[in-house]
Amino acid sequence: MSIQKIEATQIGNLSSATYSTKAQSFNESIYKDFWTVTERDTDGAAGGEAEYTPDWSRWHGYYRQVSIFAAHIDKKTSFTIGKGYEAKPAIKKILDKIIGWGKDDFNSILENQDKTAKICGDSFAEIIGGKGVKLKNLKPLNPGSMKIVVEGSGMLKGYKQVLDVDGIRTEVPFKKEDIFHLVWNRTANEIHGIPEAERMESTMKRIMEVQNDQRVMFHRYIVPVTMIPVKTSDTTEIGAFSAKYTQAYTKVEPMMVPDEVVNVKDIKHISIPQFSVHDPMPYLRFNTEKFAEDIGVPDFTGEKITEASAKIIYLAFQQTIERNQRWLEAQVRIQLGIEIDLEFPASIAPELVEDEKKDGQLNKTPNLDPTKKE
């Protein structure tokens, strides 16, 4: 029988299969279960006047509820604003009078605007007085109440603020020169910025899910689900027993019951599902590391970070922040008619130069000629 089976064996010609029909080709018409990107066009003007309102409440919700996202946004903004702005005395005199909503200063307003733009893509502040020496105040606005209005040609036309006063919806128009508008990470002909949270949403959901699952899992170690078989099907009796058991459990008091009602041996405490993964930390660690990598804020204190690698990572991060500072300085100059310089908190470059000098001395060829002086 085995000989017959061997003789019946046939040789297939795998090389005859074309690459386009293999799984490696990711041919979506054949293999439907592979991940594919969702095609997406820009929200640019399409021949007629266009409007856009940032989805502030959605993205702001992530900032308020996902601590790792808030921490990374705050860190980026903190580095961007750095030690504050530097300007000529005449400019400082103007900016010192800026109070925002009444308790702000110009540094805190810049920090607010930069942070808000990163969260939802756009931030807005009303320019009061005018540009340059005419500037009286800069009042932050709610992005969710602002409409960006663009002409059919794609050029910015102005803004509308949507207000709800006593249930009556009204729109207050603003000229484009009356609004300080930061547009974060705009691409192509987009008429708005791109939220940092948008590309991080999937990772944030995974992090929150595993943290919440972990919270329930550890809580069930202390407060397990208890299954108590009772020797009755009468709902009234079951309800009375449940009330007494709950009271005893809450107050951590002993509870005496007739043996014919409940057999203690039959009581089951369920803490976590059998065969479930007990240690979610590797998965959580993977997602938090991926989050830091994707959002562009490195971890300088990780287990795999050495002093040397931390310096290089910091230097690379410094380039990103300085680019952000140049962009913010340019927007202040263009929209407010004000020249400022944002100072980076602490540059690592001088220390790297010093390290290079030390390394140069260590790697220097020793002088073996006693007649030669260095």
UniProtKB/TrEMBL annotation:
Region of interest (Disordered), ranges: 353-374
Protein name: Portal protein
Lineage, top ranks: unclassified sequences, metagenomes, ecological metagenomes
